[in-house]
Prior knowledge:
37% of the residues lie in helices and 20% in strands. The protein is an alpha+beta fold. The protein has a four-stranded antiparallel beta sheet with strand order 3-2-5-6. Strands 1-4 form a two-stranded antiparallel sheet. It is globular, with a radius of gyration of 15 Å. The C terminus is likely disordered. The structure holds zinc ion.
Amino acid sequence: MKHFSDELWADFVRNLAPATTAQAMQKHIEDGCRKCEAVLKGWQSVFRIAQAESGFSPPEDAIRIAKAQFAAVSSVQQRRPVRLVFDSNLTSETRAAQGLKVRLLQRQQAVSDTTTNQHGEFQLEFDAGADMCLSIGHEQDRMVVLPIYGVHSGLGILKD
Ligand SMILES: [Zn+2]
């Protein structure tokens, strides 16, 4: 079975995926792929929370998180410590993202902690591993948890 990349799912949630691709993705979920469904749900929660936060611009911030994931993947492929960079432009819209708690978890255990700076950016370095995820936010019910996929398997359309 072929799967779709995180980047495509991020586009899908924002209705930016090409129509034929979006249809194939929709069918893929309906066919019951749990793996892609989990990725899709992750992105959907990003947008829900992003929309609830005033001034926390959803597509932009989600894209930055996606880019951080891809940066992580390419770092691993180059056999360097993984560095996640939460990149953003300095605009008034990103002020709400200042001081957010960011925690890297592996198998539910905290590996590393940081907070976003005044530009809504953060950086974490860690050794690649399995079952890793990133949590963003401080309140339990408004926290975004993103699984970090592809640290081992690479990026793009993956095969089982
Ligand atoms: Zn899939």
